[in-house]
DNA sequence: CTGTCAAAACTGAACGTTACGTTTCGCTAG
DNA sequence: CTAGCGAAACGTAACGTTCAGTTTTGACAG
């Protein structure tokens, strides 16, 4: 709603995103201010606020431009198990890189207390990927390549442990961990598909 | 390091935590200020800063006192599968309650840009629970009640999807979802324990 | 193709506001 | 009489906005 830069961006969009990204690397997400971004990018503060409603919105675009687009799509080589492994390894790599980590953690943290930002994040990052992934998963399930279960849950079983480590436990997310995780999830054999039995 | 209130708390500790909790319910985490907490609790600001270094630290104690202690321990009835179901259902209930949700999301969000707070959170919440849980899980695995795999990963497979929904996707965490999740994880049958094959 | 000009967008500085975290003051309870 | 506390006041920092004055852009006349 508020200033989605759907039209064209500001003249020096790149300089601004670059400044924000650099400052985040130098000072950490929390210490970056809108003033500092404007100064570094040699841009007036009003220009900044004209196109982005908040610091978080700026960093959302930083992440979209430099992180998500190149690195987070589920590949498609025909071998689903392998694709999933590659995909989760991508997250591991991303969550291990200090700069990307700073950006993602700061952004997600901000989104926890900024509804506007959370919405934009889900619409621009989550949603676009989700739909395709679930379809792919469902297709692979139909072909017997993946455990027969709710595709949403299957996706979450793969993707949430890395996020949990990033945002909650702080444990490192290595490639070995990624592989171990994918192996475990691919080993699910539900006796009755979508079993639901109450605990008592 | 900075003012861990390890000694005894301030005289009106309860009034302060109550004020913080109430304000969070009324205004949302982000809108609560240290000033407001002090005023509401009829306490001087210096007193607040004497015992807690930041808003996040206050809310950490709120969560510890009113959320974690009562509600997050893995029960022990002898039936591990059932205990796990109860445990994850507990998280579902917690993440569904609007007040608890506000508190947890705000606190975790703040922890993403406050190292001090993140450390305290892990030491006071994560660590105490973790050790016991992993031991229980390992024992149950030895008894053949749970899939034979890294207990750390097994715990994460159960606990991270709810956290993911809370902090990343925003999807609701229902009891049905909790059950579905536990069923899926308990259905893991690793052909070769800890299989690792590179994707190419 | 080029010179001119109006409109749009930009920079930089300044402003009021808000919350921070600290300091000071005076009361009050022990 | 003194130690500790609540209340108020203070300096600092960043917010988000407003206001000039300047630069850039693109269209059109020559």
Automatic annotation (TrEMBL), chains A, B:
<dbReference type="InterPro" id="IPR009057">
    <property type="entry name" value="Homeodomain-like_sf"/>
</dbReference>
<dbReference type="Pfam" id="PF00440">
    <property type="entry name" value="TetR_N"/>
</dbReference>
<dbReference type="Pfam" id="PF16859">
    <property type="entry name" value="TetR_C_11"/>
</dbReference>
<keyword id="KW-0238">DNA-binding</keyword>
<dbReference type="InterPro" id="IPR011075">
    <property type="entry name" value="TetR_C"/>
</dbReference>
<protein>
    <submittedName>
        <fullName>TetR/AcrR family transcriptional regulator</fullName>
    </submittedName>
</protein>
<dbReference type="InterPro" id="IPR036271">
    <property type="entry name" value="Tet_transcr_reg_TetR-rel_C_sf"/>
</dbReference>
<keyword id="KW-0805">Transcription regulation</keyword>
<dbReference type="InterPro" id="IPR001647">
    <property type="entry name" value="HTH_TetR"/>
</dbReference>
<keyword id="KW-0804">Transcription</keyword>
<dbReference type="InterPro" id="IPR050109">
    <property type="entry name" value="HTH-type_TetR-like_transc_reg"/>
</dbReference>
<feature type="DNA-binding region" description="H-T-H motif">
    <location>
        <begin position="33"/>
        <end position="52"/>
    </location>
</feature>
<feature type="domain" description="HTH tetR-type">
    <location>
        <begin position="10"/>
        <end position="70"/>
    </location>
</feature>
């Amino acid at each position: 709603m508020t200033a989605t830069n759907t039209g064209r961006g500001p003249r020096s969009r790149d300089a601004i995103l670059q400044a924000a990204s650099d400052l985040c690397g130098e000072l950490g997400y929390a210490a970056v201010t809108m003033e500092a971004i404007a100064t570094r990018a040699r841009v007036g503060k009003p220009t900044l606020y004209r196109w982005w409603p908040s610091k978080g919105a700026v960093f959302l675009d930083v992440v979209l431009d430099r992180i998500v687009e190149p690195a987070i799509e589920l590949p498609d080589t025909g071998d689903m198990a392998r694709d999933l492994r590659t995909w989760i390894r991508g997250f591991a790599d991303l969550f291990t890189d200090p700069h990307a980590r700073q950006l993602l953690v700061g952004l997600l943290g901000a989104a926890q207390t900024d509804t506007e930002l959370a919405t934009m994040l889900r619409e621009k990052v989550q949603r676009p990927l989700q739909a395709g992934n679930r379809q792919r998963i469902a297709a692979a399930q139909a072909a017997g390549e993946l455990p027969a279960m709710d595709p949403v849950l299957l996706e979450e079983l793969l993707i949430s442990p890395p996020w949990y480590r990033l945002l909650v436990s702080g444990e490192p997310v290595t490639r070995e961990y990624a592989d171990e995780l994918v192996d475990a999830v691919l080993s699910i054999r539900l006796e009755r598909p979508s079993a639901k039995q109450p605990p008592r």
